[in-house]
């Protein structure tokens, strides 16, 4: 074994215990079960909120449906499962407010649920394999029970992306299998 063989061996080593894979170990290509369905991680995004605080977002698919799994570990693990919503679905009042103020309002009523602005966070986002970060402002909303979420991400002055979701227990994600070796 030459000296370079040692480095090759380290590249293939896993960063987790294969007998105890958790949601924190997820990566692109991983498979897991949630709500009696099998999901595959198809992309991974990293968010930099400053002061050395990062969160991760996984794009997941079960064949027909695409969702987002957000993991935030700020002393306690918060896992959110969400899906895209067209901005216009938030209603004329919300869209008119955003046109006039270039930011979303503090309260939004969507599908009969009233959401309250919980946090406004400026930061940067990039797909894990990409080189360039994109600047954004994230407006995170919660319903009164703090079980449902609404997130509006603002890129530039007029580009907005909306997701709605629910906060789930990390243990609801099970049978995590890593991507197979090539």
SSE blueprint:
Layout: H1 3-12, E1 31-34, E2 37-48, E3 54-61, E4 66-73, E5 77-85, H2 92-101, E6 107-110, E7 113-127, E8 134-143, E9 148-155, E10 159-168, E11 174-177
Antiparallel strand pairs: 1-2, 1-11, 2-3, 2-7, 3-4, 4-5, 5-10, 6-7, 7-8, 8-9, 9-10
Protein name: DUF4178 domain-containing protein
Domain DUF4178: 28-167
Pfam families: DUF4178
Secondary structure class reads mainly beta
Number of strands: 11
Number of domains: 2
Order of helices and strands: HEEEEEHEEEEEE
Q: If strands are numbered along the chain, what order do they take across the biggest sheet?
A: 2-3-4-5-10-9-8-7
Largest sheet: 8 strands, antiparallel, barrel
Low-confidence stretches: 1-11
Q: Give the fraction of residues assigned to helices.
A: 10-25%
State the shape: globular
Question: In angstroms, what separates the terminal alpha carbons?
Answer: 22 Å
Mean pLDDT: 89
Radius of gyration: 19 Å
Number of helices: 2
Strand percent estimate: over 45%
């Amino acid at each position: 074994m030459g000296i370079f063989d040692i480095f090759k061996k380290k590249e293939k080593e896993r960063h987790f215990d294969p007998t105890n894979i958790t949601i924190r170990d997820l990566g692109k290509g991983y498979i897991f079960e949630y709500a009696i369905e099998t999901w595959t991680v198809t992309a991974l995004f990293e968010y930099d909120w400053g002061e050395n605080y990062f969160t991760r977002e996984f794009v997941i698919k079960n064949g027909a449906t695409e969702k987002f799994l957000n993991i935030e570990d700020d002393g306690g693990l918060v896992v959110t499962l969400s899906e895209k919503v067209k901005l216009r679905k938030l209603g004329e009042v919300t869209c008119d407010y955003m046109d006039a103020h270039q930011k979303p309002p503090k309260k939004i009523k969507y599908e009969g649920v009233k959401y309250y602005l919980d946090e406004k966070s400026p930061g940067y986002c990039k797909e894990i394999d990409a080189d360039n970060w994109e600047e954004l402002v994230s407006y995170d909303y919660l319903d009164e029970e703090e079980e449902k979420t609404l997130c509006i991400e603002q890129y530039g002055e007029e580009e907005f992306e909306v997701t709605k979701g629910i906060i789930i227990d990390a243990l609801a994600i099970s049978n995590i299998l890593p991507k197979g070796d090539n």
